User: What shape does this take?
Amino acid sequence: MLRLVRSTSENPDFRTLVALLDQDLAIRDGADHGFYAQFNKIDKINHVVVAYQDEEPIGCGAFKEFAPDAVEIKRMYVLPAHRGQGVAGAVLAELERWAQELEYAACVLETGKKQPEAIRLYEKSGYKLTPNYGQYVGIDNSVCMRKSVS
Assistant: This one.
């Protein structure tokens, strides 16, 4: 049974999963990885969800405030052996519920064109394309999306 735990970036299971995510992204992003990595630090993230299957950490996600009325979804990852089983969707839905409980109206996120499975997940979850924001303006590989949660 899947168990979702709300935590912070101090959670050691979250940190282990993020290290695996960063390894995956370094391969996918190639030479662009350094650019993206600078925006994905996990220090002091107060809103983290870790997914457990039989006490094994198998997936994670987080958010941080983006604007007074919106959060940015960050650090979404599921171990390869557990993909395609609804784990990422469950983590994302829990992050959205948490953001809504904290009275945020929307979630935004950035993903890459080299992560088509992530784009499909977000589209399936109701996210719509939005113009690239902040540091992603003018970055061809970046895909930015937004969803209302209010």
Summary: Residues 123 and 131 are 15 Å apart (CA to CA). The mean pLDDT is 91. The chain has one domain: 2-148. The helical segments are 12-29, 33-37, 87-101, 116-124.
